[in-house]
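In practice, a research group might receive sequence data for several interacting partners and want a quick structural hypothesis before committing to experiments. The following worked case mirrors that situation: the sequences arrive first, and a predicted assembly follows.
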Amino acid sequence: MNLFNVYPLVNITPVKALGAKLWDDKGQEYLDFYGGHAVISIGHSHPHYVQRLTEQLQNIGFYSNSVQIPIQRELAEKLGQVSGYADYSLFLCNSGAEANENALKLASFHTGKKRAVAFKGAFHGRTSGAVAATDNPKIVAPFNADHAISFVEYDLAAVEQVLQGGDVCAAIIEPIQGVGGIIMPSDDFLTALAALCKQYGALLIADEVQSGYGRSGKFFAHQHAGIRPDVISVAKGMGNGFPIGGILIAPELKASYGLLGTTFGGNHLACAAALAVLEVIEQENLLAHATELGHYLRSELEANAGAEEIRGRGLMVGIKYDFPIKDVRDQLLSEHHIFVGNASDPTVLRLLPPLNITKAEVDRFLQALYALIPAEVKK
Ligand code: PLP
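A structural hypothesis for the assembly, expressed as tokens:
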């Protein structure tokens, strides 16, 4: 049987990984500034993570969530403490798209309304419910064309116009747009959006699938604006590569049996992975580290990368050029053995290194980038 060929694969076979480094089957070392679509938060094969997962596997590996799973409560407690959302509840699932589907479903049940408002260029997932939560025409299937999500610019008047329809259950927003090209609504915009949602009886869903878990230097990117969304969706960095997602739910939203459900969500191994991530974030003070190294990386890029704009916060960084970055990205990998990401905007390089990246590794990336930038764009 063949694999269904729906995304391109880099012709590299990693056989070993540690921290921000990978090695392929020929012994070549690589530096990972992308983390496989932003999933590597605490570094590859972190010893605490490996130990936690191994112990869990030797104990009770998997069992579906039809029985008591104490490690789920342990995870909820730790996440509440580390994120500053101890009064919220946690629903666990397996991916970012699933988290957003559950968030939108919950908002719709809670308000009795069916429409949502989202932002142009956003990406909230690809499954048939969440596929409607992007306006990327390459992703939206014909049956989703008539979806109930209105996509608007980052324009409060446009948001208000949709909210005035009276049928909006939620606004969903990435506090830092990832796939779209590291686009940041301002803190004031987020604050005003939260107020508008309240005024019109809609919930605010913060999609922190990519920007959460310390990536921006705070646990959640929306915390830079000081807002408290009604629902926060998480995945990616939550499990450092192990599939897990979830939503954090405000106390006003009441649970009832059957409202949401899942077979695999919150299984033992996924919870062990997610707990290990939180423990390492705390023990190694990774929020402060991401702030410091992110600041260093961005200020170096601003001074020397010949870019049009350096975007992002913490270690979620976009380098916007005035030319397509495909060749630079390809050469970073083939000549300098460094993985970086792209975005739906072909002129943006997307950087998502592990939160415990070292200064020496940042410098290695910078030197490689500077060597590749076309001479005419250098300052
Ligand atoms: N939300 C955001 C902000 C994302 O970046 C992504 C994936 O890139 C998703 C949701 C979907 O996550 P998943 O691929 O785990 O379904």
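Before designing any experiment, note the following. The mean pLDDT is 94. DSSP finds ten helices and 14 strands in the chain.
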